[in-house]
Structures are given as structure tokens and as C-alpha cells.
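Budget justification, computational time. The allocation requested in the original proposal was used primarily to generate C-alpha cells for proteins on the priority list. As evidence of use, we reproduce two of the resulting records. The first is shown immediately below.
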Amino acid sequence: MAFKVSVGMKATFRWLSCLAFVMLGSQLLAHSMEDRITELEKEMQEVGVTNPQGTFGAGFTFAGTEGANGWYIWIDPLYWHAKAGATEYAYSDKTVSVLANQNDYFLRPPIEGRVKDDAFGWDWGLRVGLGSYFFHDNWDVNINYTWFESNDSSGTTKIEPSAVISLKLPDSVPWRHARSHHDLNYNNVNLEIGREYFLSRTISARPEIGLKSSWLYDRQNVRYSEIFFPNLPQFSNINGKMKDKSVMWGLGPRMGVTVNGYIGDGFSLVGRITGALLYSYTRSSMSAGIDVNIPNVNLPAPIRMHLRSTEHHFVPTAQMMLGLIWETYINDKRQHITLGAGYEVEYFWRANQTLLAGDTTTSLDFSLPRRISVSKASEDIMFYGLTLKARLDF
């Protein structure tokens, strides 16, 4: 009987030992799984993000360059070339003929010549900017200002039987001389917010959104002298002049993206494209006339025109840039510098709204009634060329 009790107690002890071992193993396994899950969650937090809706997903690693205080400034010297439509002011014709009565002319076909317009040269401009990083999520905001202006003067002279035909005066009479001076001023302010992040090990992108405000001032002055009548030399004292001006101010949303491709040793290829739609207000004016100053000759009053126009319209714009930059940290990584150069284009559609006047007769008899047609140029303006860059993060 004692033997049976001893055997039963041993069996019970073995069963209780196995149960205790299983329970201890379960606790150890649960503790180990909890540690692994905690470690995994910590790693996921480093590469992921929870949005305001509570959904968790992958997060893009910040790729910007930040100084000790989170501020940055930059300066971009610009060496640009300007292009503008509707700058044509005259064309030449080889075969202008004077009628027998010496007070009118006609163009003998075929008409052969060359159109004269204003072609701007290369000029220096400047862009400056100031920005700061947010403490949350490494977004940055900046404001930048661009200034550029250019001007051009050109002219043409012809001798009979050739002559210069005006494209700006309401009377397209033949002249011996034409000369034009053109001024173009550009001012721009951008306010933008963006965040730069890595798409891969060597590619980063910075999408941006903001506001764009642009001012464009376009003015052209043209003078014509010596009406072409060989047998009436006193007509050489007749001169024509025209002043045309278009001033545009626009404001609208702007968005775009900058992409960096890291080459190595601090060098990167950078490309940028942005677009904006400006709600614009344009003021246009034109003054034109022919001055008659012939002693002892009684002629009707000369032509005079003073016209003004205002309108609101949308002006689409685009900006593109491709270049190379070099960057490095300095002062124990408390500051960061960036140097670069690239080719940049800024394009404005229908920004030039200068007034154009045309006549319905070629007669020099100023007493005849006429209707002068007036239209708007609605031409594009663009700037392109070399953009240098120097930026300091501090």
C-alpha cells in the first residue's frame, strides 16, 4: 500500500512539474515576443508615420540641409537675356514709288525688305531669399525677390528708291529714318513652402506650393524722320513719334518640384520646374503723332493720338532650371554652404498688352475722314540665361 502511494505521488509530481514548465516557457516566450514586437514598433516608427486619420504608413527620410538655428539665406546673380513680342517698329522696302503729283506714294510689288525690331542684349539681375525650417516634420518656408531689367536701342536708314515704312504710326507713310528705344523691367516675389525628402539612396525631391506676384513694365519709344518725297525737300521737316507702354501686375498660386541627383563628393545635378497662374491687371497707353513744321506752307492739323486701356486677365507662367551644385557642412556642421550654376527660363504668356494702331488709307491728305483701327498685341515675354547660386544654412 505504501508502494502504491509512493508511485501515485511521483506521477502527480511529474504532472505538476510539466505543467509548471509549460507555464514558465509560455511566460518566457510571451516576454520574448513582447520585446521583439516593441523593438519592431520602434524600428517602424523610424521609417513610418501616422497620419491625422490614424493610418500608419511609410515615411520619407528628410533630405534637406539644416544649420544650427534652422535659418537659410541665398543670393543668385542672374545673367539673362530677355525676349518680348510686338517689338517690331518698321520694315524697309526697295521699290517705293512717288506719284506724279508728288503728294502720295505706292508700294511697287514685289515688296522686298527687312523687318526691324528691338533685340535685347545680355544683362545682369539679382535674386535674394530668406527661409526657415519648421520644428515639426522639417518643412521649410521662404520668401524670395527677383529683379531684372534690360533695354535696347536700334535704328535704320534708307535712301531712295528705298524707304522705311512705319509699323507703329496710324499713317504708314514712307520715311528715311526710324529709331527705337525699348525698356523692359521685371520684379517678382515668391512665397513658398516645401519639404525635401529622399526617393532613393541618390535621388531626392522637394515639392513646393505658394504664391507668386509679378510686375512687368514694358515701354517703347519710336521716332521717324524725313518723309520720303525726293522732289519736295521741305517735307524733310516732318517727323513722327510713338510712345507705347504696358504695365502688368499679377498675383496667383504657384506650385512645382525640385529634384536632386547626388553624384558624389558633394556634387549634385538639380532640375526644377514650377508653374503659376496669375490673375493680372494691365494698364496700356499709346501716344502717337506726326509733327508738321514747314515754314510758309498751310497744311491741316497733324495727327494726334492719346489712347489708354485697362483690363483684367489671366497670365500663365512657367519656370524651368537645370544645373549643377556643390554643397558641404562647415564649422563642425553648424553651417552648411551650397554653390551652384544652371540654365534657367521664365516664361509669361500674353503678358505684353501694348496697343497697336493701323490706318485704313495711305493718303497724306490729313483732311480726309478715316477710322483708325486699334488692337492689343497680347504677346509673350521670356527671360533665360545663366543663374549662379550661393546659399548659407545657419
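The second record produced under the same allocation is shown here.
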Amino acid sequence: LILSTLSGRAVRIDDIRADDADEPGLRDFEVSLLRLIEGVVNGCEIVINAAGTGVRYRPGAIVGGAVVHECPASRGLGYFAEALLALAPFGKAPLVATLRGVTNDELSIGVDALRTVTLPLMRKFGLDEGLELHVHKRGVAPGGGGGGGGPSGGFF
């Protein structure tokens, strides 16, 4: 999806967990990521089939701006922040993202690793203007409740 957005080329993904008899299709965090991208990319079109096993994505323009997103507790904030960090440098306006949910889990990069590893690496590529990550409140599974970003910082 990130490469589709950056290249401006539409993508279709079929048979998403179609063989999984218990839980076919997209998971809640994957749908949530699609909705987050929709909030940052103006004019994109996201179509999920009724079974949830197929997605059609037509990208638009990365606009940036302020976005607030409630992330499901099934995935940590790092999962969502990584996508934003890949798109943010190409936005028409600076991106200020407020993400709420689980700050650290076993499946996603933690917010502290993003702050201490990923952001310094991005700075080495010259992407340092306003690049910040603030953790206002920590959240753990199953309830989540933590958050980062916000008008005092954000990702860009």
C-alpha cells in the first residue's frame, strides 16, 4: 500500500487468508491501517469486498495535516507509525499524527525503538525538519489507551 501510494499506481490484493476457515480476510488492525492511510491520502479509494478477502486500493495525493486515529489493541502503535513515517516526507503539508492504543506489543516495533532508532536514521537522510515523537501516555494490551504524537509534536 505504501509503494502503491508513493508510485501512484493502483493495487488489488485478492485471497487474503481465503484458506483460513476460522477467520478469513483482513484483520481489524489491517482495516484500521487502511482507514489511517485514507485519512492522510486525499482522494484515495479503498474497496474491501464483502468477505474481507479482497482489497482494491487506488491512491491519491499525500496531504499530511493533522490526523487522530484510534488503533485497535490487537496491534501496537508502531505498526501504524511505520506506515505514516514512510508517507510523511512526501506530504503536501507537515503531518501531525495522534495515535491512541497499545504503545508496545510483541508483534510491532515499539514506540521507544521508533524514537531512538528509526527517527535518528531518518535524520541521517535529511528528514529532520520537525521530526519528533512524543509518548503522552503508555498503553498495554488488552485495553490499550496509550498514545503518541499530537499537536505538540507528531511525526512531521
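A brief technical remark on that second record: The chain has one domain: 2-149.
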